Amino acid sequence: MKLNKELNHSASHLLATAILKLYPNTKLAIGPTIDEGFYYDFDFEKPLLESDLLKIEKTMHKLAEQGYEIKEIKNYKYDFENQPYKKELHESFINEGKKITFFGFVEPKTQKNIFVDLCSGGHTQNTKNIKHFKLLSLAGAYWKGDSKNKMLTRIYGTAWETKEELDEYLQLLQERKERDHRKIGKDLNLFTFNQLCGQGFPIWLEDGMKIHNAIRDYVLRLDKKFGFIEVMTPHFGERKLYEISGHLSHYKDTMFNEIKMDNENLIARPMTCPHHIMLFNSTRRSYKELPIRYSEQSRLYRYEKSGALSGLERVRAMDLTEGHVFVRPDQIKDEFKHLYQMIITALKDFDIEIDHISLSLRDEDNKEKFFQNDQMWKHAENDLRKVLKELKIKYTEFKGEAAFYGPKIDFQVKTALGKIITMSTLQLDFLLPNKFEMHYVDDNEQQQTPVLIHRGLIGTYERFIATIIEQTKGNLPYWLSPRQVCIIPITDEQNKYCEELYKELLNMDVNVTLDTRNERMNKKIRDAQILKTKYLIIVGKSEIENKSLAIREFGSEKTTIYTKEEFFKKLLLQNKKITF
């Protein structure tokens, strides 16, 4: 299923034509194609409603059926009097020396212009080709993306060559809605946001925190197994720290403004690598100590524009399981093998499949994005190529995707909705050790500079949790589930027994709830299922008399009878499904 860009470009013009027919005084802005369709920005006299989209869509179909030719209109004199946005674009194109072209819908017999737009081209030949389309939604959008400008109304749509493709895409959109972590997070009471707490700062609710802590506990155990030392460093750094590292010059736009106090200029940290370097430099180091592996569950702060914020995927405060390894040059290959195995272990335990591995390199022509040291870059990039080849790992090279300080290996994952994201990363860094004058003493008592490897295990907790929620539709594996067991007494007579059972499960470190509400049992069962509870224990008089438990698993209407010992053993086995 491949999107036809020309068809969608023409569909955006068809939308503008319909809008001017229905709302003649509307001012047009821009209407480009995007990855999955098109949009057009308008300045309406009166607010448009979602319910208006169907009427607009019907008008588009009627216009398309007229069979207008779509072609470039030569020597066209556009009337900019009532179209200020088009006028502004036209003037800026002239000032920039761009070619000015107009494309329009033309009545075949009379060659009358039905609609003309300032446009660089790329269209289907006739409006009759625009048959299978759908207007999807309304949104607000600032003119030119600048919040200082007027808020316009953006209409999103999509167009496909066949009805089958359109239906398939609309089904995909529905699947996205059902998997949207923002919806699931709200339904399952995992997290929330509050304007008074600041945009982009998530508030973890009880069940969300249980997931967060389960991941953290796993990561800490994995770190220990692979030789990492857990550390904790400040949430702030002096401005000078980020000047030395180069982060201030490369990432200033995504860093929070500095706070001036007590003759210090403090900045909320966007990453912890400079802090871990300070740890390394805090004492004399011997070659025998290397590799030194630091790990931290870091709270980081990065400024994202308000329009870019999106649930847990794009936030301004985030928790990241960061790892930094300091090695001798002769240890690079072995350490990469070690860290590669660590990442593979983690992804396997979280049931995440790698789609492909990419080697991200610098773009030699981009002097601003990447630190300028040809020898360093060639050395680092060749080292990573050798490691990947010796490990017999298939990889694809991507130019211009490296970090500013060095190349990296990215572990790419395809989400349940087909989106490719970077899940884990290993970055080789020769730059920061030199900038911070890092040294260790070799076997000849000579000072040498270590190499830094940045290890990103699962990314930020926020984005990782968003991903696994969408992958599973909130039905997490038992060991990650915040709702592992719910005990439901049939009558109040069983409450005392259920309370004892509840305490036993708590002592086993089970995420257990006891529902003694004055509600019908069917409602209690339904509520527990809505919250994706893995096991329901239904306790009545017969269960107490027979010393048994009636168990219903999530997604099943079947009830299975266990002894208490059998069920407890089953729960313990659920937690042993990770690989170490």
From TrEMBL:
Belongs to the class-II aminoacyl-tRNA synthetase family. CDD domains: ThrRS_anticodon (cd00860), ThrRS_core (cd00771). GO terms for molecular function: ATP binding; metal ion binding; threonine-tRNA ligase activity; tRNA binding. Its cofactor is Zn(2+). InterPro entries: aa-tRNA-synt_IIb, aa-tRNA-synth_II, aa-tRNA-synth_II/BPL/LPL, Anticodon-bd, Anticodon-bd_dom_sf, Thr-tRNA-ligase_IIa, Thr/Ala-tRNA-synth_IIc_edit, ThrRS_anticodon. Keywords: Aminoacyl-tRNA synthetase, ATP-binding, Cytoplasm, Ligase, Metal-binding, Nucleotide-binding, Protein biosynthesis, RNA-binding, tRNA-binding, Zinc. The gene is thrS. Binds 1 zinc ion per subunit. One of its GO terms (cellular component) is cytoplasm. It catalyses: tRNA(Thr) + L-threonine + ATP = L-threonyl-tRNA(Thr) + AMP + diphosphate + H(+). Pfam families: HGTP_anticodon, tRNA-synt_2b, tRNA_SAD. It is found in: Cytoplasm. NCBIfam families: thrS. Its EC number is 6.1.1.3. The keyword Aminoacyl-tRNA synthetase applies. It is an enzyme of class 6 (ligase). Homodimer. GO terms for biological process: threonyl-tRNA aminoacylation. This is Threonine--tRNA ligase. Its main location: cytoplasm. Zn(2+) binds at C273, H324, H454. Residues 207-477 form the Aminoacyl-transfer RNA synthetases class-II family profile domain.
